Structures are given as structure tokens and as C-alpha cells.
Amino acid sequence: MRLLILIVAVFLPGWLPAQTLFQNNNAACESEPVLCATGGCDTPEVQTLACRAINRDGTFAGADFDGGGFPDCVALREHNFDSQLPEPVASVLINRGAAAVSCSPGPGDQFNASLDYTMSGLDLVDQISNALAGNLNGGNSDFAGVAISGGVGYAQAMNPGTGFGPDGSAIATVNASGDVAGNNQFGFASAQGERNSALFDCDGDDDLDSVIVVVETSPGPSEFKLNVNRNQGAGLVNIVSTDSYEANVAPNFEDDAALTVGDFDGDGDLDVAAFFDTRSDGVPVLQVAQVCLNNGNCALACPEAPTIDLFDAHPGEDPAPVSVEAGDFDGDGDVDLVFSEPGLAIDGLQYYDNDGTGAFTAGDFVALGTVAPRVLTTGCYNNDNVTDVAVTATLPVGEFAIGLIGVVTSGPGGTLNPLTGLTPGSIGAAGIDTADFDNAGGDDIMMIGTNGQGQRSVFVMMNGLETVSAIAGADQSGDPGVPVAVSGASCSVSPEITDPFSDPARFAVQWTVTASPAGATPGLSGADTLTPAFTGDLAGVYTLQLECRTRCTTRVVDTKNVTLGGVVPTPSPTATPLPLLQTQGGCLASLAPGAGPGNPGAMWVLLGVLPAAFGWLRRRRG
Predict the structure, then answer these.
(1) Exposure of 578 by Cβ count < 10 A (0-12 exposed, 13-18 middle, 19+ buried)?
(2) CA–CA gap between residue 592 and residue 603 (Å, rounded)
(3) Which of 562, 463, 410 lies closest to 20 in space, CA to CA?
(4) Which residue(s) pair with 49 in the sheet?
(5) Strand partners, 142
(6) Which of 15, 117, 272, 301 is the most exposed place for a label (fewest CB within 10 A)?
(7) Which residues contact 128 (CB under 8 A, 6 or more apart)?
(8) Averaged in consecutive runs of 10 residues, what is the pLDDT profile of the chain (622 residues)?
């Protein structure tokens, strides 16, 4: 094992192009063993990870368990079936925030050692399919484990305010049934960390509800269902039969499924997209995706005919999808889909473009050769206003599988930038998620794998992306009732990345009046430009605030005063609260295609040649 890790950490980087954004070559700083309270971290069942939840508008909010203002994460495992005693199942990773420990090379160690917990709502026979993170009951961020054996259930760890207690303690969970009693509904295992459940606000009440894909075997015939658990403000509650929706796809003997959420028809409600892979004796029978639209009150309507037939883009082949994610990958404002497909003759990522109504056509295909893609995540990786994708990938080496991360970024016109590869130095890559861990303006990546000591760990890929700045310009003056042309304002990033696909409209600009003389009625025209016209009707000092942001990052602001003639009174400030922990995943941006020397596409070709050169045998998903 350690020799193979050495190959990953030392040998493979020599074949990879230099990556100027993600800095991940210091495993000692950026690898955090998980579930170490007992058993010494050697728990390969750790597969699923969560660092964020989706907002109703499709953006993402980082999970903040300790109230520190920086995104935290949770990793979950299933219980050890060989043990008769409760064992830790949850590792909470608290972000050091601005106190990150300096490391060289690399930007620093961002996370504290994991805090490991047992959970009262999960017994020894439960198998956890997913970890979910988000604000479930109106306080700080909470998390839930989704159990799928013996039925579907949610064990919700409610945060009392600053975390979940001392390392090694037990969390008393709030539990909710996720399957309809008497209907024999079962969930799907997450063998590689893929997502088959999600939190989303499906009814517009600002509480996070949940959705999970299940198969129902009685009263018959067997069918796939999408089950919604509602949240009434205190956490998920038991599902009711009317919230179990037909996917209009028939199961077979061997089935797999996964899902994602997004506003696919542009009506402001979050919908659900799921794929279904049905087989008989390992032979694919049906591989389709359904986009099920939300009526605004969580009722999901799936079409009678499949939205996408995954066979059509690759006739005669077996895509064998593992993961699906949503994002605006072509910059047209519609939420598209991407699938990881490791069963093809040439493995890769298949994109599908949305026409804005929830109808999809096959788009770009990103070939990975003999490197098999697994679990997808989306994020803002270089601030160009278009959704990017990261995917775990495996390269078989003997009986092990080296864990890699591939990053595919998009240009605003829908052109995909060259693929780049990251080597976390791991074996057995599993769950992956994205958040802006250092609040620096670019999303970072966390992935589950096994380190050189054989410990199950999370690997942190910190993004060295530029930060966004706002300059409102020098103070100005004028006269009441006369428009003042606001000047001297700018939005910028530093250092600037040379990107031939850069979007001229990469910045969203918004001016607001945050303070004015008592009784005044100020006005702004062109408030979404850098050169608005300001008019004040009374003499005095007015404070104007400039907000600059990319579609994917936390906003930055600056202010200036405009003084209109006469006596100058003290401004009366108007509160404008700042949003916290806004990161991208529904938006996702793009990496610089020229981010370093070398040819990213050639890197994957070279990786594909390595197994043959050393007599390694390729494995496929069974």
C-alpha cells in the first residue's frame, strides 16, 4: 500500500501538467484521517461526504457547524458488521478558518483533526448511503445520515449551536422514516460515494426538505419512486404516501440509481433529475434519465417517456453511469446535466444541454481514456461565470485503484477548457464535495481516499484562485435634484488569470444607497453598471455602496460619499446585511486553460498508457 501511495505522490505528478490553481502536493498538510476515535482510522467503509447544501436559487451554502463563518464537512461510514458494539460513524471536520496552519509547499492546513461520533439513530444493521449537510431546524448547520437497509431512514444530527460535543461522544439524533410503510421501498447503496439523495427546499418555505430515489416492490408491479420528506422547521418528518412519486421507469433484477437537483424549467422551483441503470445478469437492459418537475409544493411530475436515453449518445455501448450533477455548463442560463460514464470503450463525462424547458440533447463528451470517472461535484473554480466540474477517477494498479481528480471547466460560450488532473496521493477514491473553505473567492475540493498509512482520510485541494476586489472610487459632490455621474468605480481580480474564454460580463455589479439625510428620497439609474447616475433631493451626505461579485463567489463591497450642497448633516445608515458562506455548485466557473506547462489532454493519455506499460489490468464497475 505505501509503495503504491509513493507512486501516486511522487511518480505520477511528473506526468501531470503543473496546476497553478489547486495546490495539493503536500499530503502531510492536506490529508485528514477520519474516524480515529477508535480503531485507528482503518475504516474503508467511509464513502460519503457533505460540505454544503443547495439554496432555492440554485447557489450553494457551505455547512458551518461551529459558527465560525467557514465551511465545515462531515464524512459518514456504515457500521462494522463484524462488531457487536456501536462504533463511530460520523467524522465532523471543523475548518480552522483564518487560523489555518502554515505549510510548505501549499497554502496551509485548513482543517482540524476530525471529531468522531456515534449516532443513536443508526443501529448495527444500517447501511449509510449518503451524508447530507445543511440547516435543518433554523440554527447552525446540521447533518443527516441516510440509512437504506431494512427500509429508508434519516438520522438527523441537530446542532445545539457550536457543534456536536466532544470527540468520541454519541449524538442523539432526530429520526425520520423515508419509505412508505407496507410498500417495501428500498434505497440504493453508495458504493463509490455517489449521491442518491439530496436536501432541497421544494416548497418555498425556506426549510430544507429531502428527496431520495427508491425501488418499490409491493403492492406491485415493481417501480422506481422519488420519495420526498418535508421539513416543517424542526427537521425532516416521516414521509407520507402522497409524497412518493412515480419515476415511470420499471426496475429489473439488478438496478442502480442516483440523482441531483436544479431548476430545470426556469420557474424558480428546484426539480429533480435521476438516472436509472437496470440490468439482468450484468447485461444492461435500460439506462435512462428522468427530469421530474416540481409544481412549487414538492409534487414531482416525471414524464411518461424518458427524458434522456443514455444509450443514444453511445450506440451499442454500456455507459454504466455512476454519478449525475447539474449546472449551467454552457453559460446560457439554463441548468444542464453531466454524467460520469465508466463503462464505455473510452470512459468519460457526457454532457446534456437544456433548452430551458427541461428538454435535453446530448452535448460534449470528455474522454478520459482508461481512467475511470466516478463521482461528480460542481464548483466555481476560476470565476468565469460558467459551471465547472470535478470528478473522482480511478486508475487500477494491481489490486488497488489509484485515486485521481479530474477538473473540467467551461467557457461562457459552452466550449470546454482542457482537462486538468490532480493527484491527492490516495487509494480508493470515493465521495467528493466542493466549497470555498478559505472564503477567498474560489471553490476548493475535498475527496475521500486512503492515505499512505492505510488510513481512510479526506484530502483537501485548496484553490489558489485570485480574489475579487471592489473600488467605489473617490468621494464626489453635486447639487440637490441634479444627477451626479458616479465615476472612478471598478471591479477586479488579483492576480488576473489569462483566460481566452473569459466572460466580458464576469462581474455582477450592484449599487445601493446605504445612508442618506433624514427624509431624503435618493435615486439611482444604471445601478447594475459601474457608472450609474445618482440623484438626491435634499442637501447632505449620501453613502453609496458598490457590490462586485462573480456569479459564483461571495460578494465584496466598497463605499463612497456623495455630498450635495448646503449644510452637511450626519448620514442615517440603512442596514445591508452580508450573506455568509455563499459558494458555487449550481453555477460553477472555469479554470484557466493555460494554467501551467504541459498538455492536460496528453496527461490522461499518458495515464492511460501506464497500465499497459506495467502490465496492469483494468477493472470495470461490476
Answers:
(1) exposed
(2) 16
(3) 463
(4) 75
(5) 134
(6) 301
(7) 48, 76, 77, 78, 89, 122, 145, 146, 147, 148, 190
(8) 41 39 62 75 79 88 91 84 64 90 71 90 78 91 88 92 91 93 88 93 94 90 94 95 95 90 95 96 94 97 97 97 94 93 95 95 91 92 80 83 84 74 82 88 87 86 75 95 95 57 61 95 94 96 89 74 75 43 31 28 36 30 32
CA–CA gap between residue 279 and residue 291 (Å, rounded): 21
Nearest to 193 by CA among 409, 428, 387, 511: 428
Query: In the structure grid, which three cell numbers stand for residue 184, read together?
Result: 417495501
- Tell me what pLDDT residue 23 has: 61
Q: 289, 275 in Cβ contact below 8 A?
A: yes
pLDDT of 171 reads 92
Residues 6+ apart with CB under 8 A from 272: 198, 200, 211, 226, 259, 260, 261, 291, 292, 294, 300
pTM: 0.80
Q: Which helix (H) or strand (E) holds 6?
A: helix 2-6
- Alpha-carbon span 121 to 79, nearest angstrom: 12
**Can you tell me the distance from the alpha carbon of 298 to that of 295, in angstroms, rounded to the nearest whole number?**
6
Residue 530, Cβ neighbours under 10 Å: how many?
19
End-to-end CA distance of the chain, in Å? 23
Decide if 407 contacts 432 (C-beta within 8 A).
no
The Cβ of residue 558 has, within 10 Å, a number of other Cβ atoms equal to 17
Element (H, E) at 602: helix 600-613
For 184, list phi and psi in degrees, rounded to 5: 50, 65
Q: What whole-number distance in Å separates Cα of residue 41 and Cα of residue 33?
A: 6
**Cα(451)–Cα(487) distance, rounded to whole angstroms?**
54
- Joined together, the cell numbers standing for residue 284 give 444492461
Residue pair 330/386 in contact (Cβ under 8 Å)? The answer is yes
Q: How far is CA 595 from CA 295, 382, 409, 418, in A?
A: 43, 11, 12, 10
Read off the pLDDT of residues 582-605 as tens digits, 9 standing for 90 and up.
Answer: 333 333 222 222 222 233 333 343
Radius of gyration, CA atoms only, the chain: 25
Asked if residues 363 and 352 have their Cβ atoms less than 8 Å apart, the reply is yes
* Pairing assessment for the beta strands 456-463 and 31-33 based on DSSP bridges: antiparallel
Spell out the residues 6+ positions from residue 11 whose beta carbon is closer than 8 angstroms to its own.
none
Please tell me the distance from the alpha carbon of residue 587 to that of residue 207, in angstroms, as a whole number: 21
> Among 444, 605, 451, which residue's Cα sits nearest to residue 8?
451
Name residue 228's amino acid. V
Q: How many residues does the chain have?
A: 622
| Residues 270/262, Cβ–Cβ less than 8 Å | yes
Give the dihedral sign, CA 312/415/323/180: negative
CB-based contact 220:167 (threshold 8 Å): no
How many angstroms separate the Cα of 461 from the Cα of each of 22, 381, 587? 6, 11, 19
